[in-house]
Structure formats: structure tokens, C-alpha cells
Design goal:
54% helix, 677 residues, 7% strand, DNA-binding, 34 helices, single chain, alpha/beta, disordered N terminus
């Protein structure tokens, strides 16, 4: 039997190891279960608890999918699985839809309606066709959540039978130009508010393993955030003169008089560029990305020995469950359909969101691991990971440490939610960080040593990365802070506020009467003290409050509206950097590059508009909707023994700061060609 299995054509894609293990030659991942598991791995279809291969070639995937669909391959599976495979699958009724014996999918689905039973409804046929379109074109299932998805379906339905969709050429030329024009018109409308609110230039950078450096420029104001352009700075990333000229050109595109601040992400921490901007443009501030700085704080938290050990123990539980499909079903039965882990916008956000989720499910997890359904099933209880997981689940010290991790991290996750939601939050970040620090002091009121450990981390990141005079000035001008008698830090930020005023009002003529106007505001006299103004403090944003009630201090009103209308962080949603990689590929000719630039411009701005337009309070700006099946909370790169797990508990976390899903699991893979360009 072993000899027969080694003749399988899929062995050319794997290396056979001891103990029924195989090593994928594409991604080098080690899999248990032999050649059958490898096939599901190479098929890139999530199944049997096998993670899809991220590096397999498309032609190999197609070949493996054909093998899995053939009768010969079906003979290798057990009788039970064979019956399940033969059973027709439909989201509506499993007995309704059947395919002819010439599958896969009736030899590339010629006339789908002829290949289905006569009693299949139009609804089922439509869903089948949509599903085939997704599978054939490797579309991410999350595309079905797009606002334009249902809009497209409704529009097609109105056209009736016989509607022919636009051709590739029409999409690439006519419709791309039309929609790009509509997006541009919308951006021009937003520009009208800049004279009042000012705007923020957001700079996002990304580098790959080929030393390619891409820089994206966005422009943000209270109404919206727009993508401006993407630049390949690979050859000049460390060339100060080139970067200075690049930033100068972007600033001139929007007008320096309209720009309040430029937010740089941590990857572009170039002192010379910061100095160039500050010296050349006297009224423009340079600020760090608040969400990245908060992520750096969480990263340092996770490096503390006992926190790191707690995370790795929790990951052992999640990996044990999520690498067994029947165990996942059992878990969801006990948790009433809820997942026990969450995927955040970064790896470290994922760590602490998942700890929160596991803590929430503590009693249900204990119930599951001690239930007869688990203990009497040797498929679960006899696994080598089973006993360590049960030991962790029953360990009160583990749960105490999870509670401690959640208590310390949650205030900073709340700050990240506020600054990552795309809304003007510059007036809140100082107060939010102060409250987060106070929560640590309160929690560790009886433990000065631990309190100091966390305080030192926060203070170091706050002072060296996050703190900005603009944040202090915004806090001083925020009425909810200025008029709150419990706030104790106003005196310490007044100096920063005055420095910001001198920068924004550089001449005596501009500063005329500013002292009297400051007194009107701080003493809540005139319109500042009316009942309407007091009632509106918690009802509207600080910028709008100043617009409505700051008329008695016109100069200070203009300054306050411009400062308080700014964001603190880069855009909050998932970016597909593979698109920008293709835009800047040397293999593209000029026409294709222009088309790809237009696609990126439209795509990015539609995503930004969709993110801005979503007002649901259920959407968490720091959490992704789907679990990342390649994250450290799910994926098993190898199967360490229980003792190896215990040995690793003391080691520090490593790896890229970015969540794997953000850049690796995009709709467009790194080898895909966008729209056949």
C-alpha cells in the first residue's frame, strides 16, 4: 500500500518525512496525514483543518482540484467520506441540485440549467452561477459583503433575461474612465471645506523582501479621506533630496495653506524629512500615526515573560481546536456559534482581542473539555496536545493571568478604536492616553513593581513616538476637557498650546486680541457659557462645537476648527499591497501602468468611501471580520510535543508586526495579473 501511494502524481510537489508527514515544496510547511492532506493543502480550498498553500502555482492548484474531483481520488477516502462527497450540496436543499457524471461541474458548466433538476428554482440557479463565478476567479468570499455586490445583483435583475455584461475592453476603458471621473468630482467637492477645517496628508509606506519601497499618499478631512497617488521610491528611499522633492510636490498639490499636519507611519521615521517639512512650511505639523504607536505599546506588553507565556498557552488551545474540523463544530456547539479567537488589524491586536474572547468563553470551554462528548472520543482525548490543553483549561493561574492581560490591554485597545475609526480624534488622544495610564495605576494599586513595568513601556512609547504639541493643543481646545473639573493636566499642556498658537499665528497682526479670546473660552463667558453650548459638548464633535459657539472668539475659532478637525492615524481598513506592486512593476508598459494607476485610484477610494459610510456600531475598526487561518492562533507550522510547547513558553514573540491576512491573503495574489493586464 505504501508503494502505491508513493506513485501518486502529487508526490512531485512534496518531500516525504518520517511518521506519515509530508513537506510542501512550495511553502515548506510540514503536514500530518500524508499525500491526501497535501492535496487539500495545494487545492487552496479550506477543508479538513488544512491551511491553504500561499505559494503554490495556479497550474498545480488546477491539477490538484481535478484530481480531487475525479473518481480515482474518491477511492482513497473512507466510505463515510465517500458518501458525503457523493451527496449533492446546496445551501437551500441538498436533494435538489445534482450534476451529471461528467463533472467536475459538467465539464466547465456548459449551460448550467440543463445540468440541474427540472424542479430547481431560479433562486438556486442564480446562487449556483454566482458561486461558480467566485470559485472560477478565486474571489475572496468577503467580496460578497461589499455594498456594490448586492447593488450589482439588483441592477442586473432589473434588466431582465438576456442582459449581457460589459466586455473586458469596455470595463478597462469606458467604465474605468467614467467611475474615475465620478470619484474625482467627489474629491473636488470635499476640497471646498479645506479652507475652514484644513486637512491632513497621510503617508503610508510598505517594503517587501526585494527591497522595494512603496509610498501611498492620502488626504483626510472631516468629510472623507481620499487616496491621492502611489509612488515607487525603491531607488530613492534613503535619498533625502528625492524624498524632500517628493513631499514638496504633494504639499503643493493640495496647497500648504490648507494642510494642518502630515502623519508619517513608523516605517518612514526619517528625521531629515521631518526637519525639511518643519523648516520649509512654518504652519505644518508632522505627527506620528497614533494607531501604530499604540500597537508598539501592545507589542512591548506581549514581550513581558508572563504575558508571552499566557498568549502561547492560549494559542495552544486555539490551535488544537482549529486544526480539527469536528472539534471546531463541537466548540461552536458549546459557544453557541461564537469563535474563541479574533483577528485584529495587527498581530498584537489579535493577541489581546483573542485573550478577551477566550476569557469570555472560559466556562463553556471548561464544559467542553470535561464533557463526555470530548473525553469519550479517542479522536480527541488521545491526541498528544489533548492533555496539555486540558491542564491549561483547568489551571486557575492561567485564567488569572488571562484576566490580568485583558485588564491591562483593554484600555489601550479602546484608545486604538477611537483613533483608528477614521474620525477626527486629535482632540481626544491626550485624554484617552491619560485615562489608559490611570487604569493601570488603579489595577496595580497594590503592586508597584508591575505598575512600573507597564508605566515605563507606555511612557517610553508616548514620549518618543506618540506625544505631539498638536495633541496637547487639541486637548486644551476640546470643550469636554477644558470644562471638566476632574481633568488635572490642563496646566501641563498650556505651554504646548501657546507654542502651537505661535506657529499657526506667526505675526503680531494675526495674534491681535488672541489673549482676550483665550480668556473668553477658558472662563466660559459669552456664547461659550450659554446652555446650548454646555448641552452640545457631549453631543457633537469638538470641531462642530467651535463652529457653532465660537463666534465671539473668531481668531481662536478658526485655529480650533482647523486643529480639532484632524485625524490621528492612517486609514483603518485592510490594504491590498499586491495591487500597488503590480502598478510599479518594471514589466508593465506605460499604457498598462496608467490603467493600473486608475484602477488603484478607484479601488482605494471606493474602499475608503465604504469604510467612511458604514455607521454601524457593531463594526470594530481594529478587528477583521474573518479569522486569519494563517495566524499564530491557528496555523501549526510543525507539531511540537507537549514538552516542546512548555519549553517555548518562556521565549519572546517574533515575526512581522503586520497581521498575515493584511498583505498575504489579498484578493489579488502576488502572481496574479489584474484584469489580464
Amino acid at each position: 500500500m505504501q508503494v502505491v501511494r508513493e506513485k501518486d502524481v502529487c508526490w512531485e510537489y512534496a518531500e516525504k518525512l518520517d511518521g506519515n508527514k509530508v513537506k510542501c515544496k512550495f511553502c515548506l510547511r510540514i503536514l500530518n496525514g500524508g499525500i491526501s492532506r497535501l492535496k487539500h493543502h495545494l487545492s487552496r480550498l479550506p477543508s479538513k483543518g488544512v491551511n491553504p498553500c500561499s505559494k503554490v502555482r495556479d497550474d498545480v492548484t488546477d491539477k490538484v482540484l481535478a484530481i480531487l474531483s475525479s473518481k480515482d481520488d474518491c477511492k482513497e477516502v473512507s466510505l463515510t467520506k465517500k458518501r458525503k462527497r457523493e451527496e449533492p450540496r446546496s445551501p437551500v436543499n441538498r436533494s435538489l441540485v445534482t450534476l451529471e457524471t461528467s463533472s467536475p461541474v459538467a465539464k466547465i458548466f456548459p449551460n448550467i440549467t440543463q445540468n440541474t433538476s427540472s424542479h430547481v428554482s431560479d433562486q438556486e440557479n442564480a446562487e449556483r452561477s454566482i458561486a461558480l463565478f467566485f470559485f472560477e476567479n478565486k474571489l475572496d468570499f468577503s467580496v460578497a459583503r461589499s455594498p456594490s455586490y448586492q447593488l450589482m445583483i439588483d441592477s442586473i435583475a432589473k434588466c431582465g433575461k438576456g442582459f449581457n455584461g460589459p466586455t473586458p475592453e469596455t470595463l478597462k476603458t469606458n467604465w474605468l474612465e467614467i467611475i474615475k471621473s465620478e470619484v474625482s468630482i467627489q474629491s473636488k467637492e470635499i476640497e471646498k471645506e479645506w479652507s475652514t477645517t484644513g486637512c491632513t496628508i497621510i503617508v503610508e509606506t510598505w517594503t517587501d523582501n526585494k527591497s522595494r519601497a512603496l509610498i501611498n499618499f492620502l488626504i483626510s478631512s472631516p468629510s472623507s479621506t481620499f487616496f491621492h497617488k502611489s509612488v515607487d521610491a525603491s531607488s530613492y528611499f534613503k535619498n533625502t533630496k528625492f524624498l524632500a522633492d517628493l513631499f514638496d510636490s504633494v504639499i503643493q498639490d493640495f496647497g500648504p495653506e490648507n494642510i494642518v499636519q502630515i502623519i508619517l507611519d513608523n516605517a518612514l521615521n526619517c528625521t531629515s524629512i521631518v526637519n525639511h517639512i518643519l523648516q520649509t512650511y512654518g504652519t505644518i505639523f508632522v505627527s506620528p500615526c497614533a494607531s501604530q504607536c499604540l500597537n508598539a505599546i501592545l507589542k512591548e506588553f506581549s514581550k513581558i515573560d508572563w504575558v508571552n507565556r499566557c498568549i502561547m498557552q492560549a494559542q495552544m488551545i486555539s490551535k488544537f481546536i482549529y486544526n480539527n474540523s469536528s472539534l471546531v463544530e463541537m466548540m461552536k456547539k458549546f459557544t453557541v456559534g461564537e469563535e474563541i479567537i479574533k483577528t485584529g488589524i495587527t498581530k498584537y491586536v489579535s493577541h489581546f482581542l483573542s485573550l478577551q474572547s477566550i476569557l469570555k468563553q472560559r466556562s463553556r470551554l471548561k464544559h467542553m473539555f470535561n464533557s463526555p462528548e470530548f473525553t469519550n472520543n479517542p479522536c480527541y482525548s488521545n491526541k498528544p496536545q489533548s492533555m496539555p490543553c486540558i491542564g491549561i483549561i483547568d489551571d486557575n493561574e492561567f485564567w488569572r493571568q488571562v484576566e490580568e492581560c485583558v485588564a491591562v490591554s483593554d484600555p489601550f485597545l479602546k484608545v486604538m478604536r477611537e483613533v483608528s475609526g477614521g474620525k477626527p480624534a486629535v482632540g481626544s488622544v491626550y485624554e484617552l492616553m491619560t485615562k489608559a495610564k490611570e487604569s493601570i495605576r488603579t489595577y496595580y494599586i497594590m503592586d508597584d513593581i508591575k505598575c512600573k513595568i507597564f508605566f515605563d513601556i507606555v511612557d517610553q512609547k508616548w514620549q518618543s513616538h506618540l506625544h505631539s504639541p498638536l495633541h496637547s493643543a487639541a486637548a486644551f481646545l476640546n470643550p469636554s476637557i477644558q470644562y471638566n473639573p476632574e481633568i488635572k493636566f490642563l496646566g501641563s499642556i498650556k505651554e504646548d498650546f501657546f507654542r502651537v498658537l505661535e506657529k499657526l499665528l506667526p505675526t503680531p497682526e494675526l495674534r491681535r486680541d488672541i489673549t482676550n479670546q483665550i480668556l473668553l473660552f477658558t472662563r466660559a463667558t459669552g456664547m461659550f457659557g450659554c446652555n446650548l453650548a454646555k448641552e452640545a459638548i457631549d453631543a457633537v464633535s469638538p470641531g462642530i462645537w467651535w463652529e457653532q459657539y465660537g463666534d465671539s472668539a473668531p481668531t481662536l475659532q478658526r485655529v480650533a476648527m482647523r486643529i480639532l478637525s484632524q485625524v490621528c492615524s492612517t486609514s483603518p481598513f485592510e490594504r491590498h499591497w499586491s495591487m500597488f506592486q503590480q502598478i510599479h512593476s518594471d514589466k508593465r508598459n506605460k499604457i498598462n501602468k496608467e490603467t493600473l494607476n486608475d484602477i488603484a485610484y478607484v479601488h482605494y477610494n471606493l474602499k475608503l468611501a465604504s469604510s467612511k459610510g458604514s455607521k454601524s456600531t457593531d463594526i470594530d475598526p481594529i478587528q477583521l471580520e474573518d479569522i486569519d487561518m494563517t495566524s499564530q492562533w491557528v496555523e501549526e507550522t510543525e507539531n511540537p510535543s507537549p514538552t516542546q510547547w512548555l519549553d517555548r513558553f518562556g521565549s519572546a514573540l517574533d515575526g512581522n508586526d503586520l497581521n498575515t491576512r493584511q498583505f498575504s491573503n489579498s484578493i489579488f495574489g502576488p502572481n496574479d495579473h489584474l484584469f489580464n493586464l
